[in-house]
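hey so u asked for the seq, here:
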Amino acid sequence: MSDSTPELPARDVFDVYVDRYGPRLLLWVWDRAEGELDRHVSCAGFGSLQSIPMSAVRLLVDHLCAEEMIDAVGGPGPAAVAPVVMLRAAGATRARRLQALRANAAERTRHAARAILHWIHANAHRQPLRISGFLDSPDVFFLGEALSRSEVARALTFLAAEGLITCEGPPFDHGVGSHVALTSQGVAAVLTGATDIGAYVARQREFRRPTQHTHIEAGTIEHLTQGDSDHSVHTAIEMHTALPPAGLARLIEELAPALDLDPESAAALRRSVRSLVGGGGPDDEPPPDRQRGLMEGIRRMLGTAPDTVGRQLLLDAVGQALGRLLGG
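ran it, structure tokens below
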């Protein structure tokens, strides 16, 4: 269960180490100092808690001192001796932000999903691999605080439902099996370096959508949708002429249901589209300045939607229409 690092690690290894353990050490010092800036805190317990050597703890202390988060009391000492530190004002401020992050349920779930996948990948040689081993590993900690058994179980349920892992054998918690293994999709998630597993899953789901070919010409909108054996998405967009307001409005109304906007944003988009059309005829269109303002607002709303083929198509169409208004 132990992590180790050489006393003088390579820069990329050291950066990973600092990213993992630096926030934990800062929060650990902040907790024991109870937020007070002049209290001496020994780092002896941190190394044993995280299963890292004291030489690594001293490297982390040096890094936090260089960032002016903490001060070392008495200056540098032997590598094997636990350093004593004091919290600085900047360190207390950052620690408060980290504490809020540590208490955020969504962030904890994201960490759990990512940490479980990487832990399974690193221990795939152990068969059967029991998830109880994760609870005894440093990976279970999120910013210095261990995930609960139920948090781990919820993450397992999500990963299994999305086809990234299998959970079989005796029950672990909440009906989830205790023997875990990665699927080919789970291995891919690890090897691609995905840090937000939820976002990775959403992207993969988007890639598996049926093929959509969209051709846009002035006054003509045609959609041809079909699937292919690879379930990949290909988009062909032909913009021969910028769409007039009425045509742009029809295109937005047609593609809006697939944008996955929240109800409030979707309603705001519909209102802007109706205002863009005016009475429906060419003579009823809003003046150019009003059209430009509406299109800019529509573009901002589209910018908040998930990154999909339809969203990109509409952003391109709005950009073309704005260019026409500006004489481009």
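Residues 11-102 form a domain with the Arc Repressor Mutant, subunit A fold (CATH 1.10.10.10). The longest strand covers residues 165-173.
lmk if thats what u needed
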